[in-house]
Design brief:
This protein has 17 helices and no strands. It is mostly helical and 425 residues long.
């Protein structure tokens, strides 16, 4: 390279460092403010993203690609840590009993979005996309709420996580179908894409459940540095491969966490946590970074109406999903409030309709709706959390350890200690 080219590269790198440094300091200040107020920092991160994003008061240019990639990694690490809190037996039980909660979740949340699109005079494809925008909760926001409000060990939390998994699995069918509707693909091609996605999901889940203990043993021999790099690399690898076959990368990351067990599970959780917090803050920043403020004004009224109905839909979903785990009304309301926020999938779904005649209107309403629910969700989760006494984090009968039909007393005690330790940590 010539000296002039090197100087230009150095100048771009210096600008990127300065921008990223300022953003990191801003996020640190917002996190501290949120801590003093006793709320999650998510709404502040979202507002900061609006300020430095498209049409914001201090738009970032050089570092946009970096922040975008870091945001994607943030989602994967959030789902990885959720998987570390979940057991294979809980997932098996959840998938076996998830048909009714999944159906209620679909009907209570997809239908309002579909109806809004039709009422606004959009074509059927755009209305179906709006239904998807309203349907799926944000895994990133939900996981952040559970962590910030110390609810990972609550009795209703497995129901929340199970519903997230069901929604992500449903996306393996929904996204190829709506993608085909947008471009007018043949039915045979769409069916083949869906079949490949479902087969990939089955393979990923089977490998995690049957050979997760062997993976844990393989990773256990190294020091903390080797374990951190191994888990981080495996998460990105599995997430990337899952996305290649039309399955959510978040599902891949979740399953990596699910596959780990024993001491490796504990060590990995402690090592990944600082990375998760760093990249997760970037995710929420970039989430609203992509939204142009002027589009929010255009779609604000219908989005606000849909946010009200969609909030009720998620309360219904949480109520039904948690009924087999908890009896108390506050816990079931907490489950619903935790699920209110829509996010990454909703943005992806709305972007599929960009080329449609009603694409601009769809994008405006979706952007406003997602931002509203991403702010309402954490605030509602905090308020509902004070509506009644918190349920103890110890179920009366803990699930059996991996690969066992029933838990021994020692295994049950270890399970309870693990959950209590994470709840207090």
């Amino acid at each position: 390279m010539t000296p002039s080219v090197l100087a230009a590269v150095d100048s771009d790198a210096a600008t990127a460092f300065i921008e990223i440094g300022i953003v990191a300091l801003l996020l640190a200040a917002l996190a501290r403010l949120a801590g003093r107020l006793g709320i999650t920092a998510i709404p502040f991160y979202l507002l900061a993203g609006l300020a430095v994003g498209e049409g914001g008061i201090a738009r970032l240019d050089v570092s946009e690609d970096f922040i975008s990639l870091a945001a994607e990694i943030g989602v994967l690490l959030l789902l990885l840590t959720l998987g570390l809190e979940y057991t294979a037996d809980e997932l098996r039980h959840g998938l076996r009993t998830g048909f009714v909660p999944g159906t209620v979740d679909f009907l209570a949340n997809f239908t309002p979005g579909l109806a809004l699109g039709l009422l606004l005079g959009w074509d059927t494809t755009a209305a179906i996309l709006m239904g998807g925008v309203c349907w799926v909760s944000s895994s990133g926001v939900v996981s952040k709420i559970l962590k910030d409000f110390d609810r990972l060990a609550n009795r209703e939390t497995p129901a929340v996580l199970n519903l997230l998994v069901i929604e992500d699995l449903a996306m393996a069918m929904y996204l190829p179908v709506v993608g085909a509707l947008v471009v007018g693909s043949r039915v045979s091609a769409t069916a083949a894409t869906v079949a490949v996605a479902l087969a990939a999901v089955a393979v990923i889940l089977t490998v995690a459940m049957r050979w997760g203990d062997r993976l844990s043993a393989l990773l256990a021999g190294g020091n903390d540095e080797a374990l951190l790099l191994g888990v981080f690399g495996l998460t990105l690898l599995v997430g990337g491969l899952a996305q290649r076959v039309q399955v959510s990368a978040a599902i891949g990351a979740f399953v990596v966490g699910l596959a780990l067990s024993g001491p490796v599970q504990e060590r990995a959780g402690a090592l990944i946590e600082p990375l998760r917090d760093l990249f997760a803050a970037t995710f929420f920043l970039f989430f609203s970074f992509q939204i142009e403020p002027e589009t929010l004004v255009d779609g604000l009224v219908p989005a606000a109406a849909l946010a009200v109905v969609g909030t009720g839909g998620k309360f219904a979903s949480g109520w039904v999903a948690s009924r087999g785990l908890v009896r108390g009304r506050p816990a079931r309301l907490r489950a619903g409030a935790t699920l209110i926020a829509r996010g990454e999938f909703s943005i992806v779904i709305a972007s599929l309709g960009a080329t449609l005649v009603d694409g601009p209107e769809l994008g405006a309403v979706a952007a406003a709706f997602v931002l509203l629910t991403a702010i309402i969700g954490p605030l509602a989760a905090r308020q509902v959390g004070t509506a009644g006494p918190r349920q103890p984090a110890r179920p009366s009968s803990p699930p059996p350890e991996f690969g066992q039909s029933s838990a021994t007393p020692a295994a049950a005690g270890a399970w309870g200690n693990r959950r209590r330790k994470r709840a207090s940590g």
